[in-house]
């Protein structure tokens, strides 16, 4: 998703959040750590570290990215915190560090409270599967499979023997996603899913959100919009792409029901990620987004402040004065303010509260499949 090349098929997002619990009493009343997989919506610095190894400098590593971190670009694809950061804060845990670190920096003790394997630009399927189908990923080969391999390889250093690691996994909240790209539907339709593999490793409760309303993305509106397209009369979003996202979510729920039927001892919840975000697109002024929901804060010229030839972080890019009044940060990713609202909509629901001993309600989680 960090790629500047945008297409209808390669820009589809798959978000899978996986919660794991055990019957033990945890320090925060819920979980003792967060373990994350995915792409740019969750990456807290892994692509930046990979790029430094190969001496690559990408615009997303430069200001104004990360400007809310005292002008320190952390590798997050936003001006500030991501959903994973707000979730960590909500659970009373430290911000989750990237797995990849500078040589000599041993964070295995820190990783006991959280570790992030997500890499911006990652795909669900490996390069060996995608490239024969004409799908080339110029960003990274750190697919979901590669990230899972990192996870398995690092477990002994983090938690010791198999019994201790199974307990560690059971005490952790695990996020799997976002994973975007042409391959979004393969994990749903073919083979053993990531959810099933994690269940085998000890997962007892899985909460799996659906897709974003991608028809509201400033980049898609710029690249795919035309007089022939149908736009929602309330939000201004592309109807066709949002219908596509809703269709994806329907397939996802069907797959989750199949997994649930195979694992009666596991609770699987579907999180309505689509409507958690759609709340903002329907009522931007209610949430303080006075510059609307569709224009990007950082980018180039054009109706939606998006120019495919000018990336946020480029010297020629423009940056808005008040990012908190925008939903879109760079045309693909959202602002910290938007992620804060979406996190609240997702993680203040009765279902989540029943796991984490908090209150209030929201639109995020639907019941066990």
Mean pLDDT: 79
Would you identify the regions where 5 or more consecutive residues have pLDDT less than 50?
Answer: 1-28, 180-190, 357-362
Distance between the termini: 29 Å
Q: How do the strands line up in the largest sheet?
A: 1-4-2-3
Q: Which value, in Å, is the CA radius of gyration?
A: 19 Å
Helicity, in percent?
A: 25-40%
Helix and strand element order: EEHHEHHHEHHEHHEHEEHHE
Q: Beta fraction of the residues?
A: 5-15%
Main beta sheet: 4 strands, mixed
* Helix vs. strand class: alpha/beta
Shape: globular
Helix tally?
Answer: 12
Tell me how many strands there are: 9
Pfam families: Lipase_GDSL (PF00657)
Keywords: Glycoprotein, Hydrolase, Signal
Organism: Helianthus annuus
GO molecular function, one term: hydrolase activity, acting on ester bonds
Quick structural gist:
The chain is an alpha/beta fold and 369 residues long. It is 31% helix and 11% strand.
Features of this protein?
four-stranded mixed sheet; hydrolase activity, acting on ester bonds; alpha/beta; 369 residues; disordered N terminus; GDSL; three-stranded mixed sheet
Protein model, in words:
By secondary structure, this protein is an alpha/beta fold. The protein has a domain of 228 residues. The chain is built from twelve helices and nine strands. The strands form three sheets. A four-stranded mixed sheet has the order 1-4-2-3. Strands 5-6-9 form a three-stranded mixed sheet, sandwiched between helices. A two-stranded antiparallel ribbon has the order 7-8. Helix 4 packs across helix 5 and helix 10 crosses helix 11.
């Amino acid at each position: 998703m960090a790629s500047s090349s945008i297409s209808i098929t390669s820009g589809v997002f798959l978000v899978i959040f996986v919660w794991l619990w055990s019957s033990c009493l945890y320090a925060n009343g819920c979980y003792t750590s967060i373990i994350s997989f995915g792409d740019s919506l969750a990456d807290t610095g892994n692509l930046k570290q990979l790029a430094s190894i190969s001496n690559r400098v990408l615009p997303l590593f430069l200001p104004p990215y990360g400007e809310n971190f005292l002008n320190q670009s952390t590798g997050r694809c936003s001006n500030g915190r991501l959903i994973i950061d707000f979730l960590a804060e909500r659970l009373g845990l430290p911000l989750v560090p990237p797995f990849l670190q500078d040589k000599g920096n041993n964070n295995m003790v820190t990783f006991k409270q959280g570790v992030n394997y997500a890499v911006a630009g990652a795909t669900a399927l490996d390069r060996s599967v995608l490239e024969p189908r004409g799908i080339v990923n110029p960003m990274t080969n750190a697919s979901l499979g590669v990230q899972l391999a990192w996870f398995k390889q690092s477990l002994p250093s983090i938690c010791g023997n198999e019994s201790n690691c199974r307990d560690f996994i059971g005490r952790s909240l695990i996020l799997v996603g976002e994973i975007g790209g042409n391959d979004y539907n393969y994990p749903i339709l073919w083979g053993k899913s990531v959810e099933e593999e994690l269940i085998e490793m000890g997962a007892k409760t899985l909460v799996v959100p659906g897709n974003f309303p991608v028809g509201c993305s400033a980049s898609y509106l710029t690249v795919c919009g035309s007089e022939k397209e149908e736009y929602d009369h309330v939000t201004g979003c592309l109807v066709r792409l949002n219908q596509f996202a809703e269709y994806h979510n329907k397939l996802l729920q069907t797959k989750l029901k199949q997994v649930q039927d195979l694992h009666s001892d596991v609770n699987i919840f579907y999180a309505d990620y689509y409507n958690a975000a759609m709340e903002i697109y329907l009522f931007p002024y209610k949430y303080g987004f006075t510059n609307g929901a569709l224009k990007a804060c950082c980018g180039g010229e054009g109706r939606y402040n998006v120019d495919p030839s000018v990336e946020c972080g480029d010297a020629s890019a423009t940056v808005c004065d008040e990012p908190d009044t925008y939903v879109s940060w760079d045309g693909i990713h959202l602002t910290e303010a938007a992620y804060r609202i979406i996190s609240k909509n997702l993680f203040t629901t009765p279902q989540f509260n029943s796991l984490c001993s908090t209150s209030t309600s929201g639109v995020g989680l639907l019941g066990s499949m």
